[in-house]
Amino acid sequence: MPLELVVIPCLTDNYAYLVHDAASGRAAVVDVPEAPPVLAALSDRGWRLSDIWLTHHHWDHTDGVADLVAATKARVTGAATDAHRLPPLDHALSTGQDFDFAGHSVAVIDVPGHTIGHIAFYIASERLAFTGDTLMAAGCGRMSEGNAPDYWQSLSRLASLPADTLICSGHEYTAANLRFAQSLEPDAGPLMLRMARVAGLRAAGKPTVPVVLSEELATNPFLRAGAPAMKQALGMPAATDAEAFAELRRRKDRF
What we know:
The protein starts with a strand and ends with a helix. By secondary structure, it is an alpha/beta fold. The chain contains nine helices and 14 strands. α4 packs across α9. It is globular, with a radius of gyration of 18 Å.
């Protein structure tokens, strides 16, 4: 049976994600900005939380972990390299380590850039990737700790996943990210179509995530840093891909 996915709005613009396996009754949550919305989603569905998966250490992805563990006794999984600044881990993962969730293999992808110890979770059987703040809808996170070459390599790893992968990212920044993308390529047709669709979703109070990777590859400027057209738009036709990415991130920081 396929896994069920639930998007849970938290705080003002964060998301947590519930993944549920009906056959075993197990449920996992990816990132916990706060506990009450997660507990409400579980209660509404009569689900039992067995696992908590953390992408990185920032407070707006971990603040609810202690309360959620107290309420559910769920097992906490995160990166071993960040164990010193994550909530207490029951399962500390090494780079590239896979683990099992209810018979589904979950790959752990090392994606530093936003933070040094950032990881993503990828369930190949379901085409689900939980990318936290490394890859966002139409954008990427700030370079809080990493550097441009490492960040570009992380985005390239995620871009190499199957095109029909659903990208489950951590924030509702899509409309603002698309406005930045439009400032670079004002006449891009796929971008205009996406902006209209996102505006409709937000007007209806609906999340703009998850997003299929193929759409990200077509409209996310950070994934397109290596494209000649993007380098031309930046006025950097001879730049390396990492240099173009760094310039995109600098411009977005000032946008």
